Amino acid sequence: MSESGEAETDEQRQTRQEAERLAEEERLDKERADERKSLISTGDRSAKIRTYNYPQGRITDHRINKTIYNLSNFMNGDIQEMIDALIMAENAEKLNESKLDEV
Q: What is the pTM of this model?
């Protein structure tokens, strides 16, 4: 029954269901667009992860504030020092998180 007390016809019911389906689809599209937008960087310089400075022969990872002064070796695949520093930073972060969870 509709609000006016009349029985809903099949056509009215189908139209209502289609409108509800389209509204839900639009809502999901907006959610997905908002999620995609949040994942895209603004291109702001402060969002950079790593700097490769060729004139000075250094590479800096800004996430862990680690600088290596041997860019040519790094670019040739000698990246273990950076990997070790990243692993240490990740482990330190996990340790801090576990300490916070204990409190």
A: 0.53
